[in-house]
Every structure is written in structure tokens, then in C-alpha cells.
């Protein structure tokens, strides 16, 4: 009773990995148990596991692309709403999201850079700040401060202390 597992080419040699004796039965038993569990969880027969895996991988990639596209739409709509607030003179804004990833925050900040960093006469007169908080519970989560670099520099330490957070950043983002 021998079962060859793989052949590996090495320098001037060939390594053959195999199991023999009782280990063959143990390996086949564990492989059968794993296959059975996977077949049950994937609602498939053991013979169709590879096809089912390929199908799920394809659907996952499609879903990921769809989520990315929808996230970009949400960023655009949120940025439009916030631009309207800046246009009527609001200089400090807060936005809370129950869930958002770093890509969402970065895309939102990038979409609003020109509006928030706008300055009149080289000062910070026309600039603004946006504080985005992310999290579901009270006292936990992340925050993101973006806007005119001078305003972010001035406000970041106070915001971090108030929210009991830490962080860093550069060029108008904290």
C-alpha cells in the first residue's frame, strides 16, 4: 500500500513524496472526511466540488466589483451633498457612517480636497474641515479629519484628544 503525493524536481535529483502502510488509510480517511464536509457546506456532490468552487469564486469577484462600483456612487453622492453644504458657507462638517473602509474615506477626502482646501488670499479663510467618524458602538471606531492643511493641523490634536484617538497624517488629512 503506497500512495504518491507529489514529485518535486530538485538540483540533479527528483524528490518523491509518498505515504505508505497505515498512513495511507489515515490520509484517505481524513481526505474523505474533508471532502464530505466541503460537499455538505457547498451544497454539492464530491465530484462537483471543483466546479462549485470555481462558480463561487466567479460570483465573489462579481460581487466585489459591484460593491466597489456602488461605493464609488455613494462617495460621489455624499461628496455632492457636502459640496452643497460648503457652498452655503458651512466650514466645519461632520459625517458619521456605521461602516466604511479606508478606501471609502480616502475617496471621499479626494473628492472634496478642492472644496475643503480652497483658500482666499493665501489664508484659511475659505477653507473647511470634514470630520468623518466610523463605527457602530459608542466610544469605538475610527475617525478621519480632512480639509485645509492649516485647519487640519490646528484641529487634529484637539479632535484626537476629544475622541480619545491617535493618529497622524499629512497635507490636510489626519
Biggest sheet, in brief? 3 strands, mixed
Structural class: alpha+beta
Number of helices: 4
**What percentage of the residues does DSSP assign to strands (E)?**
15-25%
Shape verdict: elongated
Are there runs of 5+ residues with pLDDT below 50, and where? Answer: 119-124
For the biggest β-sheet, the strand order reads: 3-4-5
Fraction of residues in helices? 40-55%
Compute the CA-based radius of gyration: 28 Å
Q: Kindly report how far apart the N and C termini lie.
A: 64 Å
Per DSSP E runs of 2 or more residues, the count of β-strands stands at: 5
Mean pLDDT: 83
The topology string of helices and strands comes to EEHHEHEEH
Written description of the protein model:
The structure is a single chain. This protein has helices at 22-41, 49-87, 102-117, 149-162, and strands at 2-10, 13-20, 92-97, 129-134, 142-147. With 174 residues, it is α+β, with helices and mostly antiparallel strands. The strands form two sheets. A three-stranded mixed sheet has the order 3-4-5, with helices on both faces. Strands 1-2 form a two-stranded antiparallel ribbon. It is elongated, with a radius of gyration of 28 Å. Mean pLDDT is 83; it is low at 119-124.
